[in-house]
Design brief:
Elements lengths: L5 E5 L7 H8 L3 E4 L13 E6 L2 E6 L21 H14 L5 H12 L6 H15 L5 E4 H4 L7 H11 L4 E5 L8 H6 L3 E6 L18 H7 L2 H8 L3 E2 L1
Parallel strand pairs: 1-2, 1-6, 2-5, 6-7
Antiparallel strand pairs: 3-4, 7-8
Helix pairs in contact: 2-3, 3-4, 3-8
Length: 236
Amino acid sequence: MQAERRLAIMQPYFFPYLGYFQLMAKVNAFVLYDDVNFINRGWINRNRININGAAHMLTVPLQHASQNQLICDIAMSDDSAWRNRIVKSIQQAYARSSQFQRVFPLVERIVHHPANSLADYLLHGLTCLRDHLGLKTDIVATSRRYGNADLKAQARIVDICLRENANLYINSIGGLELYDRTHFEQQGLKLAFLTPALQPHSDAGAAFIPGLSIIDVLMHNDAASVGEHLQGGTLS
């Protein structure tokens, strides 16, 4: 019997939250949907950390980004100072956390990556985080592989699954209304949805705020505890 091959598709995000990596941990291939339109004020180029018990936004500045551009066509700001500002904010927020010495070099390596392309920058960051988390999931970017951007919505998702020889597609629970299970089954595919588990974690007196960047989880949990968090989430 052929082993089950699981696949997920998500837009690339900047230091995404724990649920993103719970999804990555449950699949064999994780496809970055980077040749679709950019979303203003979304999570593609920004995320939140905990500063003094309040959520604080970190933002990667972009050049002339708009929702009429594809993610893979967007360049980041030429002003090099923004990388230092982000690193400094993270350092100030988590310098006293239990895992700071172990995690901060990873943060610096990701933030200071010299790519000018937003898609390349995010791919590098997500690959580094995957490796740090010990995940074996393949990461693939749609702009680099498929050439099927003429297909739209569900039809494109199904086409990518078939090209990757997947037999189970897992989507975040937020997409429950977007997909037709019967249509997937007609193509020989199973469809499931993941509800993330965002359990409290706290050290150094830090108040827990759910849904922050994965940075917050990494700074407050040792490797074993992070592994337990990654196994969270419910498939339905």
